[in-house]
Please model this.
Amino acid sequence: MRCEILTDPEMAARGDKMLRAMIKRAPIEVRVREEYVGDCDLLMVYGSGHPVRRPWLQAHARSGRHWIAWDLGYWKHKEDGTCRMRVTIDADHPPQWLRPEPADRWDREGIALRDDFNPDGPIIIVGQGRKSTRAQGSAPLAWEASTLREVRMAYRDRRILFRPKRRSDPRLPVPPLLQDNIADALRGASLVVCRHSNVAVDACIAGIPVVCLDGAASALYGADISSPRRPSPEERLAFLRSLAWWQWKPEEASEAWTYLLHRLSA
Model:
């Protein structure tokens, strides 16, 4: 098996660091390029929603071959100077690949599950990023505005807040939620509604019910706004222990290769 790994001089430093580590520790032949050629069994990139790299991923998939994409990690991605990166295969998010896994990767993170849920608290709608909106071919705030209407119909007396992806992003006509600390932002909420945001994973840790159409958390939660699922602490823990195998540090590149190649060959 050969792997084509695409780099870019303008790539975010965290993405470049992860790809460089994967190149250095690769147990298979790799061909490093800045533009897609398509002469390898496997394709690896940073950022599956990138406007240039996404068509290359789609072309590779149409040929019946696998691709791997890295992005910013689910948790602790800015702590202790370590770059934690999430990974997926053949899709923007890995829910179809999740299965029961050994507990050690999650358990050694030392993250305690919380119960910050308040049934009378606000509902938080999480905005999409510009790359995601562009990749879906939709107008800015189109999904968010439609979701706001659904939430208002289902919860006529509930306060609604909007958390934009970035402070500079367009906003819904409801109060913004702008705290930098996501744990503080979620505390006391009754529901988080997103399309595929990593905030859904933060909400899982916090014990807040989630409604999501896609993303890693869609493996645990449903998409029914009027009847959200509230999994047990045991279900949340099992999900997080599985998801931990889809987040790696550059220092773990050898282990990441072993796991990913095993999943592809299974």
The longest strand covers residues 66-72.
